[in-house]
Amino acid sequence: MEEFEPRIIAFLCHWCTYTGADLAGTTRQQYPPNIRIIHMMCSGAVDSIYVLKALIDGADGVLIGGCHPGDCHYQTGNYKARRRVAILKEILNQIGFTEERIWLRWISASEGKLFADTVTQMVEELKKLGPNPLQKLWVA
Amino acid sequence: MSKGGILEVKNNDPIETLRVFFRDLLEKEVVEVLLIPKKLPSGDGYCQTLIRDPEMLVDVNPLAPTLPVQSARIISHLTITDPGRKVGAVLKSCEIRAVIELVKFLQVKLDRLILIGVDCMGTYEPSDYAKMSRKKGEGVSITVGLLKGAREGKIESQDGYDLRLACQICEYPNPRNADIAIGLFGYDPQREIFIQLRDQLASELAEKGILAISEEESASRDQVIERLIEERIKRRDEVFDAFRSGTKNLQDFMDALSTCIRCHNCMVACPICYCKECVFRTPTLEHKADQFLRWADRKGGVRMPTDTLLFHLIRLSHMVTSCIGCGLCDSACPNALPVATLFRVIGQRVQGMFDYTPGRSVDEEPPVATFREDELQTESGSF
Prior knowledge:
The complex is a heterodimer.
Chain A: E1 8-13, H1 17-26, E2 35-40, H2 48-56, E3 61-66, H3 77-94, E4 102-106, H4 112-129
Helix pairs in contact in A: 1-4
Chain B: E1 2-8, H1 14-27, E2 33-39, E3 46-51, H2 71-79, E4 87-91, H3 93-104, E5 113-118, H4 126-136, H5 141-147, H6 165-168, E6 180-183, E7 192-198, H7 199-207, H8 221-246, H9 250-256, H10 265-269, H11 289-299, H12 308-319, H13 328-332, H14 339-353
Parallel strand pairs in B: 2-4, 4-5, 5-6
Antiparallel strand pairs in B: 1-7, 2-3, 6-7
Helix pairs in contact in B: 2-3, 8-14
């Protein structure tokens, strides 16, 4: 049987993590190709709608990347994202859907290596978790 | 600080006595218009009615034990643009708490609003109330029946009809944040009703000869309310425990909501879901035919309409922090899904994360509208 390859949807902020991902590319960092990046202006613009939609439609993991606390281009977007993710994780915990599929990470524009390492690590962890059970459910 | 006075009940008729009290408020211009439950001509129930002419106060019942709609939404319509007059609104505790939440979301302005809260015995489903009313005939006997328990705080169901589950587990039988509070607990409503007032209103009502301020409060009132709240919390915890043990894993949770047809009734009934442009009414989550067919290809088949789980999870993530537990979503559900219990159970923990009690104070910022720099930190700096 083919090895399970998780699919990750990543919402990356324009000013930090997206640029960090760019740097990972230009500096030829190697990381697994399991990630589909959606370019956002700010992690604070990631509504839980999109995270949930991705997970319910079968994504194995969702990565939200933003600027480090204190560094948000819009001052406070990442703090708001942090609360939103905390609320979402608590809700998912309570309904028995593992919150470990959602990762929020602060990765700056200069941290290309951290971006590559994060994706590598996330793919490893998701492989341990196995496929998202919602992927095959016809009633979800 | 607040002051109070006793309203002497005439002819053992608390409803008529309160009607006279409200007529005074209108005629002496303490309020210029009054929103108050008034009996429908059919007798099947009550509806909030915006009354200008005191003659229209016939058949009003501020203590009506039904909650057909959440008045917080009405209050939003009445105050979001300046009404230009003093609006008095007779509301139950859950409605006032919803108003407080909507103030924080800039959907209600308190400037010209006088919140008149009533001690609430609980409410019946509108359909149950209609059946009871048809059996018992005209009059206020259903309300009076419930009021018998006010003095001791022991509320009993009548004629085999239970109060709505949300009311059975409500920890807020008496209103807070009201400008005028109609107190029944700890009193014999056949004889007297306690009226609690904000300072300024107390002097106005005294000056206008509507109510003598006595500062006296029944010694047992606090205890009666406390005991009632304790009982409600006990019942609440039973309901919560049952829900939690029945929805331990994702499959059980989905089974509990499996008959959802995504009609959006719960969302429409919800006072907190205020967005004018709701994501469920935009093309954001609309799909083209080929998307549905791709799902069918991948899974072998797909339930239509899709996105029922998504609907509840999005609603939870958007407004569970402000859910005040009025339970109107339950009443609105055509398939009797435990939507209100779901929101209250999950809300308990999510609200607890931020030590937030919705409806408690206009000064507390809703968790989704604020943050603290030093919170939710983990070793890696993120989580």
